[in-house]
Write a structure and sequence with these properties.
The protein is α+β, with helices and mostly antiparallel strands. Among the domains are: 7-40, no CATH class; 65-103, no CATH class. The protein contains 4 helices and 2 strands. The chain has helices at 31-40, 65-72, 76-85, 88-103, and strands at residues 7-15, 18-27. The protein has a two-stranded antiparallel sheet with strand order 1-2. A hairpin with a 2-residue loop joins strand 1 (7-15) and strand 2 (18-27). Helix 2 crosses helix 3 (76-85). It is flat and about 60 Å long. One of its GO terms (cellular component) is cytoplasm. InterPro entries: aa-tRNA-synth_II/BPL/LPL, Gly-tRNA_synthase/POLG2. It is found in: Cytoplasm.
Length: 105
């Protein structure tokens, strides 16, 4: 494991040549930023201080491709793309409409 990595993983493929490493993944944390900062003397960090803690509610669209595939068959890709292209405002409006129709009729 590399000296700067907190953890490492390898993905291997078995083929006619035997097992071959196809990718190596290293959890480098903030090693690069810290090293650049130490060499340059410039702090590479940012933060914004608030007078009070803020709580922000966000609606994330995470399509269940398996379920959408069962429901929409050949149109699954089109439905997933439409969902992923939605703005947060559109997503909230759709959620409210679904809640009104199915959750709180």
């Amino acid at each position: 494991m590399a000296h700067y990595a907190a953890d490492c993983w390898d993905a291997e493929i078995e083929c006619s040549y035997g097992w071959i490493e196809c990718i190596g993944i290293a959890d480098r944390s903030a090693y690069d930023l810290r090293a650049h900062s130490e060499k340059s003397g410039v702090p590479l960090v940012a933060h914004e201080k608030f007078s009070e803690p803020r709580e922000v509610e966000k609606l994330l669209i995470v399509p269940s491709k398996k379920e959408l595939g069962h429901a929409f068959k050949g149109n699954q890709k089109m439905v997933v793309e439409a969902l992923e292209a939605m703005s947060e405002k559109e997503a909230w409006e759709m959620k409210e409409a679904i809640d009104e129709e199915y959750v709180h009729p």
